[in-house]
Amino acid sequence: MSKVEGKAVLVTGANRGIGRAFVTALLERGAAKVYAAARQPETLSDVVAESNGKVIPVKLDVTKPEEIAAAAKHKDVALLINNAGTAGFSSFTNPDAADLGRFEMETNYFGTLNVSQAFAPTLKANGGGAIINLGSIASHVNFPVLGTYSASKAAVHSLTQGLRAELAEQGTQVVGVYPGPVDTDMAEKFETDKTSPQEVVRQILDALERGEENVFPDPTSTQLYEQFLAAPDATAKFVGQTYLPA
Questions:
Q1: Residue 126's CATH number
Q2: Domain count along the chain
Q3: pTM over 0.85
Q4: What is the pLDDT of residue 33?
Q5: Is 3 domain-assigned?
Q6: Which of 149, 178, 225, 243 is catalytic?
Q7: Which residues in the chain show pLDDT less than 50?
């Protein structure tokens, strides 16, 4: 997609953490318009007020087809950022694992799938554009305390690969992002080094503009992925022993 400058962008889960950092960074890079989508768009009132009309709040729960259809009426979008997600702390042996895992799949996987389907024709009409899917290093290595979440993010990784192949003909760049611990509410239970959302977003947008397809935007994700490629089973054991909630 080359540059963000002058483009209209839609960001899901835009009201906090990485999503809010995306909104700020996109404006700094000259995006013409940012559709900031969230289940409660009123939580974006401050950034909307400060944007001189460039940030447009959009009500969007990615598990609700009718809200996806309404969001897809914005026909100028050239970059879609699938950031919305949820995580529960559950192992697979937890009695509630099936219910929790189902909700994580509905949000993380099916939400990303359905929003991507809805916007693919718009991206094609606007020259191809790009989709950024927020996976996780857990897409590649299952974290035992995040078992069902890891499974949902593995599904996002597979979806990203499939969309990349299917949308290549229409010229849509599909970027998979696989961060490690980021300093957001989601990672507050972990006592480990965390990268700021702002730095993660900077790395992602730099990679997008360089035409890269897979992004490991922090030292932890880069290290773990290299370990995984070299020794998958050993890396899984290392993760299980190292990354535990406080």
A1: 3.40.50.720
A2: 1
A3: yes
A4: 97
A5: no
A6: 149
A7: 246
